[in-house]
TrEMBL record:
It comes from the Bacteria. The lineage of its organism: Bacteria, Bacillati, Bacillota, Bacilli, Bacillales. This is HD domain-containing protein. PROSITE patterns: HD. Residues 32-133 form the HD domain. InterPro entries: HD/PDEase_dom (IPR003607), HD_domain (IPR006674).
Amino acid sequence: GREDREGARAAAVKAAEWLARERLGGEASGHDWHHADRVRRMALRLAPGEGADPFVCELAALLHDIADRKLVPDEELALTELESWLKRQPISGEDAGHVMEIIRTMSFRGGSGPPMRTPEGRVVQDADRLDAIGAIGIARTFAYGGRAGRPIFAPADGSRAAPEAADRRPPESGPSAVGHFYDKLLLLKDKLNTAEARAIAERRHRFMLAYLEQFYAEWEG
Ligand code: ADP
Ligand code: NI
């Protein structure tokens, strides 16, 4: 009956939380358990506006980075393992397949992949992208850069640090965390699928621009 199904769904969510905590734990590049948890909460917030199934959103959000190539040596193998894990959960084959489709499509990163096919996919992708901007997005970017051995900022020799405007890329001598703002963070607000995510992104985007202005002002002294 309906109660059985709700109970089974709650059990699957608990199991996914467990798996995400175990696999992502204290990961140090910004893809840790707390990222998965924030993406889950944001996905649940966006779901009603899109008529998306909150259960599929929640599972996909919790599991979306577990098989990411930045965290595992063999992404394809990790995806296959995740698929078998899902099949062992008390959920329908349809839901399991849908969650896998979302995770696989999202892993074509950088907006160059195919558009998400379902409302649930659009919601989870937006929730993941919102976690890449604003104060948290900034923190994750510097954490990632540090982990990858990159400098926080690498102004080109002889150039002023501050660009004309914070949204113009300053000349740099190589990759840096600040450079990543121009590669990705500042572009994300125009890549969102849902109206609610676009509204949330406005303020986070303005905050990043204000942050960069302050950053350059302090850099130049
Ligand atoms: P997705 O969220 O599509 O899986 P990534 O995992 O590549 O994208 O990025 C998630 C976050 O990790 C980014 O928003 C950023 O904070 C950080 N990150 C990823 N690549 C870089 C990079 N080259 N330099 C700095 N930060 C990065
Ligand atoms: Ni993510």
